[in-house]
User: What shape does this take?
Amino acid sequence: MEVFTEGALYRNTLENLESAAKLVNLNRNVLERLKFPRRTVVVSIPVRMDDNRVQIFPGYRVQHNQTLGPFKGGLRYHPHVNLSEVGALAALMTFKNSLMGLPLGGAKGGVQVDPATLSKSELEHLTRRFTTELGPFIGPDRDIPAPDVGTDSQIMAWMLDTYSMESGFSQTGVVTGKPVEIGGSRGRDSATGLGVVYIADRALQTLSRPLTEASFAIQGFGKVGMHAAIEAYALGARIKGVSDVSGALYREEGINIANLVRYVHENKVIAGFPEAEVITHDELLALDVDVLAPCALDGVIHEGNAETIRAKIIVEGANGPTDVHANEILFKKGCMVVPDILANGGGVVVSYFEWVQDIVWLFWTEEEVRSKLKEIMFRAFDQVWDFSQKNNKDMRSSAMATSLLRLEKAMKLRGQAW
Assistant: This one.
């Protein structure tokens, strides 16, 4: 299993798992089963490029645990995708789905590719061949992929079509994150960002501070960060800083997010936006705000910069943005870190809603989706908050502990642990 522990994210995940297991005196057999995935699928994906040459891309699907239900997790297209990273993210999906109270297991997948370098035709060929390779291992009652970094609803539509053609009939439940026209759920695109805001709202309530009076800094302005900014701004919060790959922006009075979104749609990045001043990425993380929401990639808050963080609450919109050592420093400083398995659970919750709607062929309005999402996010936060207060523990340990207790009970009931 050394191939998994080579990566920092996997080692960080194991540290969190083992620490939480000690906290709740987790059954040793349960712990050992959760350290590594049940199944790993590694494939070579041949794609005929537009210049007629064949290029091979490595693809992965890691199925971590299915005690609670079918495997569930995203697929990412990124040049740095590797088996260790995918394995860690699959484990985090297991813990996230358990914590959110969903009847789903955990999985993750990806292809080592920069999708920006492919034409639309090449991207479609890659996706369809990847789907064929994964065919024996996925399905509405086996494993349900979803979009992630570098993938979107169009990728899911191609996967749905390929799987359905090979099955002989339409199976809309094989993936989530699809366009609404072919079985997708309303509210799915904004779900992860909206969930971040719901969790921030509930966390602020513990400080007796209303969201309408709160200030935010949002690191990352992609699918998660942009929607988090839109939703928080719409609810009256002051967004003092945002960033993306092109740079970071700051405005003490608050950035007009509606104007920034229009600018990004025209220019692709936030760089050059005239209504805010330019700051560095490090300065963004150190802004004096109520809520810092890291919504990009992992590892951005670490031992080297944790002391500079001034936010009262960190809500992890990304997977693994805060490492173990930084988490300890922040807890001692009195900063509440709401971990990824809780904070960014909105996406998988609405993916679950989509899967359910596809199964019963009965679809909800966006208002119903948002209402049900808020109820689940608040309930999960309250369970973690109660555990943290009763045991005087940080929110990360408390979230993992809460998740593990549900998994342990289910595994014992199924006879998977003694």
Notes: The chain has 15 helices and twelve strands. The longest helix spans residues 366-391. The mean pLDDT is 95. Residues 191-334 form a domain with the Rossmann fold fold (CATH 3.40.50.720).
